[in-house]
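task queued by scheduler; priority normal; single chain, no ligands, no partner chains; default sampling; output format set to structure tokens
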Amino acid sequence: MGLYNFKPSVRPVPLEVHIKGFPGKFYCPRMATMNKPCFQEIQIHSSEKPVLIFVSSRRQTRLTALDLISFLALDPRPKQWLHMPENEIISLINQVTDQNLKLTLAFGIGLHHAGLNDKDRKLVEELFVNQKIQILIATSTLAWGVNFPAHLVIVKGTEYYDGKTKRYVDFPITDVLQMMGRAGRPQFDDSGIAVIMVHDAKKHFYKKFLYEPFPVESNLLTVLADHLNAEIVATTITSKQEAIEYLTWTYFFRRLLVNPTYYELESIENIDLNKYLSRLIQNSLNQLETSGCIQIGDSGELNALTSGKIASFYYLLNTTLRMFQDTLNDDIDIESLIDIISLSSEFDEFPVRHNEDKLNEILSKEVPFKVNPYSLDSPHTKVNLILQAHFTRANLPIADYITDTKSVLDNCLRIMQAVLDFCADKGWLKACLNVLNLMQMSCQGRWIHDSDLLILPHVEHEHLIRFYHNKLKLDCLPRLMEEYEKDTELISKLFGNILDKNQCRDIQNTLALLPKLEINISLSGQIPDKRAKKVFDNSEDQVKRLNFDFVSNQIFELYEDEEYVINLDIKRLNKIRRFGKDTKAYAPKYPKPKDENWVAILGCNTHEESEHELIGMKRLTNFKNHQTSHILLHTPLINENPKNNLFVLSIYFMSDVYLGLDQQFDIKFKLIEKKNGVP
């Protein structure tokens, strides 16, 4: 079992392959020496036909393009790779945001990598496919992506920098084959040429093994514990024996029998095989138990715990949940939460490119929370700095960090959701509130201590004085929303002389879209309070409803040791339809569309921090215009209550995306003793 590699002679379109070796111990100088040969290969093999050049990084796309432009400048025809009128390309260049791409497109050279925004990337793809530009320099990931025609493919270097091992490693042979396969596609060309530029020490290796069928081995062992956790949560596996049987149905087991030495199995005799599989399963189960994900019973039964369910639901590694157990607590603050999120195992392989430790050192001086100066080359430190820079809206050192920020935000929100569930299960009220604040910060790109007015478009710190020094005293976002509803010209009056009409209109549109909610709270159950009303007329049904029309100092009566239901009825007053996108929130600093979700938290909140407790939590996902939610409340016994028969409940209604729009309701209760155990 393995890959079947075919020689160029059996392809429908003949492919001519050239493998060229280049001396040099160090990667960057060696890549630079390949640029002149690249230019020469294009002139020899594909002077007028499309050319794809694959490089290892975004930085190399830029450096390669700039060197090619310098060679073109010495040529009598510097625009020979541009196949469209000058005025048309100038018009298109004006639409491009990437500065390097603006320069290269003028010479018929396109750049393609993950650092480009969607608009720039699509423009480059269209120009190359329609043969308006002749050269496309791309990162290797393009080889597995969309299908582009090319007569000549140049693989400029077969190594890439691995941030985890902090060294340059070789591309898999499959990646090199995929890049070569982009040359001479049947539907586009009648012949193709591939030039592979390698370190001269590896030239013979590629000549020998480029068409050898390498076997495909299993990587299951590195993530076996997490696979088992998911199956235990799904109750597919309920015992150790079932786990072993599950393993025998995997591709790993088939390869184990064919190539046991690769997996460090000495013999495939039944006894040795069973011992080997039992040891694998036992080690994985012990790892899950240590992480608090599962419970192993006395008779070997396997039960999923809350941490295991959280890891499975949010696709997190069990080592991340173990880190949660070791680091999280009820008094956790924002700074510590940022550390914990960045230390998640999901960021173990986050890219730290060559010399980026120096850029991280520069960035560390522009953010408020300090990081370990001896770990600036760590992916976790880089994630920490990127998050802080996002909240600060600091200038990033290079364009690559912009794409890295998108990657961090895309992953960190689900990790924060997992932290929220973990803390809620522990009953940690303060921690849950801080996690929600951190989620809001991630979506808006602001610190929690910043004015919530700063989430509005075009509003910066220097503009806040316009809000504060005003007879209306617009010191917060809800206050501004309230006054804007009364006077729609308010923004123009405040900023008409410093912002243009379009900028003022952006602020007005945002204020109109921000949710304005009306929340009605009631309590159902066996209520002795005379202000309660019966929900049903049936004499056998004693369920009553107590409505809290507003927050006041009134004290409401409830029975001790009784179950009640907190009812929340939420209506959006500014019902706005945006072409079917009602639930998409205003989050311009988040890399993709974000749903407008809310979280209702019921907590026992007192002046003593040690007495803070989360009683219940409900998520309101895909919130539109009207929704209801219910939270269960079990009242304590009078003699178990620290304040004897008086206690205070706080209901927090919080957004997971907006800063400044949270609401809190405090309600005071007096416990009434049951007579003979009967209400």
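post-processing summary
- Residues 400-426 form the longest helix (27 residues).
- The chain has 23 helices and 20 strands.
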